[in-house]
Amino acid sequence: MISPFAVLGGAAVGAGLVIAYRGMVPGRPDVGDIISRMDATRLENLQPVRAARVPAGGLERLGAVLLRAAGEGALRLPRQELELIGRSPTRHVGIKIALGLYGLVLPMLLVAVAAAAGHPMPFPVPALAGLLLGIAFWFVPDIHVKQQAVEARADFRHAIKTYLRLVQLERAADAAPTQALKRAAEVGQGWVFVRIRDAITRAELEGISPWEGLKRLSLELDVPELGAPADIISIAGEEGAAVGETLGAQARSLSGALVTAAKAKANSASEKMVMPVSVLVVIMTIYIGYPALTRIMSA
């Protein structure tokens, strides 16, 4: 019978060899640092560049190793969701590896504790359980990221409603379409407005219109509510049309959709409470009525 300690020792030696190999391989230059040196004055306002200067942690380095070896396509990462919540693919892969190893080792630790207590178990049982837990824990970060993305998209829609109102006010003050988009984005302080400002700044650096940058951001994050105002403001920028009323109508429509979604979520939560409340009522009825019923039957 193979000892669990021998398995853990072999895994530790293998991990040490991988870390030693990665330490001897020369690192690749960081793309963010290269871009910041090329145009450091204009890229200071970009949030992703500031994030790239933060030293990567152990999880990100571990995820980068697997990401380079297997490729993003083989790992099937939820790229849109990661982009929306602001988590790097390397960190996400690192979290998946850490949780997968935790699920793989957890049964071994339980077997070691049981063996120390005088209750040994056959090795195939914890090995199979560790394999199943490792596979299950590997997919836990993907599920969590998708749940976070749903909440982030809801926050994004609320912020876009405010952004539409601000752009409408800027246009009513005779601001040009480009100025209206920039000034409205500079008013907000939330993370959504930070992403909008970054998209507009990147569009300026690439020599395209700000509304094209917003359209691209809406496609990258799968938030079509941001693409609609970009289409509206592009009409004003390209044809000189008055779009103030259209922006207001779009904001009102989005507000109505958000209210409807909130009501549907509340109704769903209420429906989920029906079954627990019904079970509780049945239990209380049995708890109160059973003694009285037994007394009547025994009389």
Strand content: under 5%
Q: How many strand segments?
A: 0
- How many structurally independent domains? 2
What is the approximate shape? flat
- Please state the structural category: mainly alpha
The profile of the biggest β sheet is: none
What can you tell me about this protein's structure?
It is a single chain. With 299 residues, this protein is mainly alpha-helical. It has two domains: 4-142, no CATH class; 152-271. The protein has helices at 4-24, 31-38, 47-52, 58-70, 72-75, 79-85, 89-116, 124-172, 177-187, 191-206, 210-221, 224-239, 244-272, 274-298. The N and C termini lie far apart (65 Å). Mean pLDDT is 75; it is low at 39-45 and 48-55.
Q: In brief, what are we looking at here?
A:
With 299 residues, the chain is mainly α. It is 82% helix and 0% strand. It folds into two domains: 4-142, no CATH class; 152-271.
Quickly list its features:
299 residues, single chain, mainly alpha, flat, 14 helices, 0% strand, 82% helix, 2 domains
Outline the fold blueprint.
Layout: H1 4-24, H2 31-38, H3 47-52, H4 58-70, H5 72-75, H6 79-85, H7 89-116, H8 124-172, H9 177-187, H10 191-206, H11 210-221, H12 224-239, H13 244-272, H14 274-298
